[in-house]
Amino acid sequence: MFRSRISLLIAQARAASKCDALLGNIPLKRLGKPEDVASMAAFLASSESDYATGTTFFVDGGLTWNYREQEKKTGLQSAFEIATGVISLKHE
């Protein structure tokens, strides 16, 4: 089996104690596989995606959506924004 960088990172994450907590935040209840990203790349390279413009596709099993839902409920900055350094500019 070919061991990509992503599969090695997944193997390391599975060994970490934080893996269960992470899986609890992913609605699909599994870590991503290289094939998940490859499928999106194949779609974007195909004529099936010709009409998709100005769109961000998240290949994360719903993790980003789940963090956004938690942010709405609590009113706090999401863990996703903290982890990725994304800053929301809100005009008052």
Key features of this structure:
single chain; 92 residues; mainly alpha; 0% strand
Walk me through what this model shows.
- Helix content is 51%, strand content 0%.
- The chain has helices at 5-15, 19-24, 34-45, 63-74, 79-84.
- It is flat and about 40 Å long.
- The model is unreliable at 87-92 (pLDDT under 50).
DSSP, total strands: 0
Oligomeric state of the chains present here: single chain
End-to-end gap: 53 Å
Following the backbone from N to C, one meets helices and strands in this order, namely HHHHH
Shape: flat
Largest sheet: none
Total helical segments:
5
Overall structural domain count: 1
- Average pLDDT number: 75
> What is the SS-derived class?
mainly alpha
User: Which spans have pLDDT < 50 for at least 5 consecutive residues?
Assistant: 87-92
C-alpha Rg (nearest Å): 16 Å
Strand content: under 5%
Helix-residue proportion: 40-55%
Topology:
Blueprint: H1 5-15, H2 19-24, H3 34-45, H4 63-74, H5 79-84
Summarize the structure.
This protein has one domain. 51% of the residues lie in helices and 0% in strands. It is built from five helices and no strands.
